[in-house]
Amino acid sequence: MTVSKAAVTTVPLHPLLAERWSPRGWDAGHELLDDQLTALLEAARWAPSANNSQPWRFGVARRGTAAFAAVREALARGNQLWAHAASALVVVAAETVGPDGAPRPWAAYDTGQAVAHLTVQAQHEGLAVHQLGGFDRDRVSALLDLPATVVPLVVLTVGRRDSAAELPEVLAAREQAPRDRVPLDALLLPVPADPAGEALA
Q1: Ranges of H-type helices in 60-150
Q2: Which one, of 120, 129, 171, lies nearest residue 154 by Cα?
Q3: Residue 97 vs residues 21, 150, 183: alpha-carbon distances, Å
Q4: Mean pLDDT for the stretch of residues 75-90
Q5: pTM for the complete prediction?
Q6: CA 97 – CA 138 distance, rounded (Å)
Q7: Backbone angles phi, psi at 5, to 5 degrees
Q8: What is the pLDDT of residues 31-68, one digit of tens each?
Q9: Domains in the chain: ranges and CATH
């Protein structure tokens, strides 16, 4: 029986946020539609960024292509065990220096926002995304012929969940485990006092 993955929150959240999670069990027969892929990338494209710099870059490889196989081979071995069934692998990189040669200190932050937008759009499309930090960045950079100023940050596995997908036992257990987060109070920083000793409003 599948355990509910809906977030337990102190106040109600939009279902696209509350029900989003990162599966490893993919429907290996699912094909990502062109319109769905475009919608995901458009959602990312319209994310906010510092000075509207839009530093995010995406390399898309669909399952069954040579590009997909090459990106999969660059993943950590543990990720290769299940990522092969995803409908697509998306390399996400950040352009850390602008065309004028000026550094973009917020490029990674902004690219993270773009990916967050993409994940919410995926949820709307009936899809899911699992973000992977475990991959060979040098190998991916060489594969995509990236300049030194464009840095791979993450590989996204994109597809349709399959609760019946075969996974190694330890990963199957994670699929069934409820989601959790640290309490909200633990994330809040204390509000500092102003130099006069009065609390800031």
Answers
A1: 66-73, 77-83, 107-124, 137-144
A2: 129
A3: 32, 8, 37
A4: 97
A5: 0.92
A6: 18
A7: -105, 5
A8: 999 999 999 999 999 999 999 999 999 999 999 999 99
A9: 22-163 (3.40.109.10)
